[in-house]
Specification:
This protein is an alpha+beta fold. Helix content is 64%, strand content 10%. Strand 8 and strand 9 form a beta hairpin.
Length: 462
Amino acid sequence: MIWNFILYLLYGLAFFTLGVAILSRDIRLSELGIARIIWLLAAFGIIHGFHEWLELLEQLAPEVKTYSFALFRLAVVSISFLFLLYFGLFLNIITLYGDNALQTTPKMVKALVGVSALLLILVAASFDVGTGKDINTRIFVAFPGGLLSGIGLVIYSRTVLAFSKNVALNFILAGTFMVSYAFMTGVVHSHAIIPFLGIKVVFFRGLSAFLVMFFTIRALSVFSLEQRELINEQLLRFSQSEKLTSMGILAAGIAHEINNPLTNVSLNVEMLKDLVERNAKVDKKLNAIERNVERASRIAKELLHFSREKETSLERININDVIESTKNLLNNQPLNGIIQLRMQSVPQVLGISWKLEEVFINVLMNSIDACTKEDSIEIETFQDGNSVVVEFTDTGSGIGEEDILKVFDLFYTTKEIGKGTGLGLSVCYNIIKQHGGEISLLSSKQGGTIVTITFPVASDDS
């Protein structure tokens, strides 16, 4: 009797401790997929620990062992195994399709999975209601739930291997003993005795539960390691932003110096017009010089505005004209020929033409970098309600799902060192916000990337 008391007390305590240990972790900022579903394992641990103590109560006070109490205990154990089954199902979705799988999985699919698991446990429990026991619930819910959870933890160890080999090993061991627990709970009868050892299977259930708790708590250190990496990354970004501030001050000084030679160039171009023999070819070259001098002058002025924290006023513009101008500026790019325009007649928007040129150039250069001459880049404009939409679609190498959520972060880049600073899309994001618009990026079905930019239509009184 004393051994049963100790066994069930520790058995329940192991699962209860598992649940409390998970819930006590601050994982709100974690980007790991398991962080979004780990609470399901915590719920299973706390509820199942409570169930084991109910069994202990039955042994200590046989008078409570009534049919009503048996139904209550069946309800508790069914709910606990339902949480374990949900955890196992969603963990395997994450291991198969990546940490962001649950965010990209359609709500209908997730609802179907949830309802299917609920129906399964209701059917299993309905067969157990008449007996007051939980045999069917253990076979049809506890066993697959524990098995899926264990396999999921083992496979997920590959994801956390980048943080630490020891943490990955703890995931493997936690998963292994979870599989052991699944067999001991769902396949082997509670009163069965292990041959040759003469020990009840409930002892090995308790031992498996303790080892699941022990190695899972050790595996939870992955969140601390992830937090440490995030802090180091933020410190690095802070250091880079300090450098950027210094660069901004330096750029403002350079802009002042650039304006003088640009003015000189403009004057000399005007003088050349009177000195050289004019023809179509010469005029084309002189106009190209003037156009590029004007662009360089505008960029210099923007550096000054940026350093002085001044805003440039918005004007009514035709977005199609800005796109055509942008394409002309990229005429010297080797893959300029793959850019195709599919523009509809759209209303005017409020904007700053040359700033939007910077945005479109940045987006197009990213697409060009991801494409070959066999690929294509399409720019489409159309009106959607009170918005003008510009959509860039390429068939290039695309971008990973794990990177899409970070592309607008300052200094974040997927390019090799020396080929990208991580400033481009962050600057684009701020410019579009200044125009009251929205910019988004997602993977296309063709394997490339779709960048969508929306602007509010300019009102009549603007």
